[in-house]
Specification:
The chain folds into two domains: 102 residues; 84 residues. The two termini are 33 Å apart. It is built from no helices and 16 strands. The strands form four sheets. The protein has a four-stranded antiparallel sheet, with no helix packed on it. Helices cover 0% and strands 50% of the residues. The protein is mainly beta.
C-alpha cells in the first residue's frame, strides 16, 4: 500500500484460507505468511510473486492432526524460520525446506520470535517458553494470563541493557519482563 495515496500497489495471492501471521525477512525484500490452510508461503516483494511453499502439516514429524493444520505463528532469521500452531513448533532451514528441530511442546503456540541464540514462544498456557535452537527447553517464565497470545521484544541496539519483553493474552493484564528470567510487573487495563 502506498501510504501517501492510500492505494494498493500489489496483492499477494496463494493462500486458500485466511492468514494468521506475517514475518519480514531481514536481508531480503521477502515476506512469509502462515495461514489456516496449513501453508507457509514465501513471497518476493519485488515481483509480488510466491517463490516457496512449505506445507508444514504434510511433514509427519511436525503434524498433529488433533490440533489441525493451521499456522498461527512464525518468525524468520536469515535462512531460518520457526513456525507453529496446529503442527508442532518447528525450526526450518528455508533454503532446503527441511525441518531441523521439533520443539516438544504439547500446546499450540500463538506467538514466536528469535532472540539472540534463543527462540521465545507463547500459546495455550501461562508461560513464556525459552528454547535452545537444539529443541531443549531452557526456561518457562510464568505470566499472569492463563493463555498468552502476543509477545513483543523491544531491543535498542545502542542500549542493549534496555531490552524489555511484554506478553499479553487472555486477561486484562500486559506482563512486562525487564529480565527474561522473571516477570517484573503487570499493567492492568
Amino acid at each position: 500500500m502506498d501510504l501517501e495515496t492510500g492505494t494498493f500497489t500489489q496483492a499477494l495471492r496463494g493462500h486458500t484460507d485466511y492468514i494468521h501471521c506475517l514475518a519480514l525477512r531481514e536481508r531480503n525484500p521477502e515476506v512469509l505468511s502462515g495461514g489456516e490452510d496449513g501453508a507457509v508461503r514465501l513471497w518476493d516483494l519485488r515481483m509480488a510473486k510466491e517463490v516457496q511453499t512449505i506445507e508444514v502439516y504434510k511433514h509427519e514429524e511436525c503434524s498433529r492432526p488433533h490440533n489441525g493444520r493451521w499456522i498461527g505463528c512464525l518468525a524468520t532469521d536469515s535462512d531460518w524460520m520457526v513456525c507453529g500452531g496446529g503442527p508442532a513448533l518447528t525450526l526450518w532451514h528455508l533454503r532446503s525446506s527441511t525441518p531441523t528441530t521439533i520443539f516438544p511442546m504439547w500446546a499450540p503456540q500463538k506467538h514466536v520470535t528469535f532472540y539472540q541464540d534463543l527462540i521465545l514462544s507463547a500459546g495455550q498456557g501461562p508461560c513464556v517458553n525459552q528454547w535452545q535452537l537444539s529443541g531443549e527447553l531452557k526456561a518457562q517464565v510464568p505470566g499472569s494470563s492463563p493463555g498468552l497470545l502476543s509477545l513483543s521484544l523491544n531491543q535498542q541496539p545502542a542500549a542493549p541493557e534496555c531490552k524489555v519483553l511484554t506478553a499479553a493474552g487472555s486477561s486484562c493484564r500486559v506482563d512486562v519482563f525487564t529480565n527474561l528470567g522473571y516477570r517484573a510487573f503487570s499493567l492492568s487495563f
